[in-house]
Structure formats: C-alpha cells, structure tokens
Specification:
There is one protein chain. The protein has a seven-stranded mixed β-sheet, sandwiched between helices. It has one domain (8-150): 3-Layer(aba) Sandwich (Aminopeptidase), CATH 3.40.630.30. It is built from four helices and seven strands, in the order βααβββαβαββ. The protein has helices at residues 16-33, 38-41, 93-107, 122-126, and strands spanning 8-12, 50-56, 64-73, 76-84, 112-118, 131-139, 142-150. It has 163 residues and is of the alpha+beta class. The structure holds coenzyme A. Coenzyme A is lined by residues 29, 82-84, 89-95, 117-118, 120-121, 124, 127.
C-alpha cells in the first residue's frame, strides 16, 4: 500500500466486493477513528442508499480509501458517511468525493442537496455551495449542523428540515 498514490477513482458500488470495501473505510474512519458505535454507524437506511467507493488505481489498484452514501428523501439527495482514510487526506480527495456524490445525485434528477455536517467542516462543505441552517445538534456524540444546497442558487428555506 502506498499512501502517496494519487490515482484515485470514485464509483457507484455495484458489487459485494465494492460494498465490503466501502464499509471497511467507514469502519476505519467512523468506528475506529471517531469512536462512533456500530449501532449508530450502520442503520436501517443502508439498503436504500446509493453507496460510493473511492479506490486506488495504478500499481496499488483496488485499495479502498474513501466512501460515502446518498439517500434520496423527497426532493432532496442527502449526502452521508463522507470519509477519506487518514493517509490520503489533504490532497483534495474529499472535495472530489463530494463532487462525485453531487454528480451521481444530479444524474438521478436531483437539484437539491442536504447533509448533516460535522460542525468543524462547515467551510469544507461551503466550498461546494452548501449553506448552514439552524443550530448545532448532537449526532453520534459529535456536534453537527444541517447544510443545504440548491443548484438554482436560491437561498434554502430554514424550514426545509428539522434536524
Ligand atoms: C472531511 C474529510 C472527508 C476531508 O477529506 P480530505 O481528503 O482531507 O479533504 P480535501 O483534501 O479534499 O480537503 C481538505 C479540506 O478539508 C478541510 N478539513 C479536513 N479535515 C478538517 C478538520 N478536521 N477540520 C477542519 N477542516 C478540515 C481542510 O481544512 C481543507 O480545507 P480547504 O478545502 O480549504 O483546503 C476527511 O477529513 C475525513 O474523512 N474526516 C473524517 C470523517 C468525517 O468527519 N467525515 C465528515 C462527516 S460530515
């Protein structure tokens, strides 16, 4: 495994092998690093999500390094479980992952997006046009805030969702 690998490909999970890889990344980042419990990390929505995997190409092809899932709720695509393994952070893979997830949702006709962002990542998601709404709240023991984005640029309504 070479953490300097930069040839990262993002894909929609379509095989059991890819799904295992996505869950391994989530386990490493959320269960192990952020101490989220299994019961909070893996929920009843897993079967209804589009799962996303980022993995290396090139010489180390197939090493899972990033993951996320998209849930479709009414008019909104909700981006969840966004994560990059520590060794690959700080090289724009997180931004590429968010862009990929937004494009996947757009290809399904969605123009409105939301997420529960970890509070310290408001700037990271605001780079993609997300705006924070409302107050901080606790999720899995971590402060979060609702963030919303609309492709038409209209300011999101604070009533769009109660966290
Ligand atoms: C958030 C995360 C996906 C970003 O991945 P990444 O590959 O490091 O992101 P990038 O290299 O594309 O972008 C780095 C940006 O994120 C910001 N960032 C990353 N971690 C941060 C942190 N802990 N606190 C504040 N900002 C952070 C950086 O300041 C940087 O900002 P910039 O765009 O102005 O340069 C990654 O840090 C991660 O997996 N964290 C743990 C899981 C998590 O918290 N997921 C978010 C759930 S809402």
């Amino acid at each position: 495994m070479n953490p300097v690998e930069t040839d990262i490909r993002f894909k929609i999970v379509t095989t059991l092998d890819e799904l295992i890889k996505a869950y391994l990344v989530r386990a490493i980042v959320f269960l192990e690093e952020q101490k989220v419990s299994y019961a909070e990390e893996v929920d009843e929505h897993e079967y209804a999500c589009v799962h996303i995997l980022g993995e290396t190409g090139g010489r180390t092809a197939g090493e899972p390094i990033a993951a996320g899932r998209i849930r479709f709720l009414g008019d909104y695509a909700k981006l969840e479980r966004i994560c990059v393994r520590q060794a690959w952070r700080g090289r724009a893979q997180g931004h590429r992952l968010v862009d990929f997830m937004l494009d996947v949702a757009r290809q399904r006709g969605f123009k409105k997006f939301k997420m529960h962002a970890q509070a310290h990542l408001v700037h990271f998601y605001s780079c993609h046009g997300f705006q924070p709404i409302g107050d901080l709240f606790d999720e899995a023991g971590i402060p979060h805030i609702l963030m919303v984005k609309k492709d038409d640029g209209v300011t999101p309504s604070p009533l769009v969702e109660k966290p």
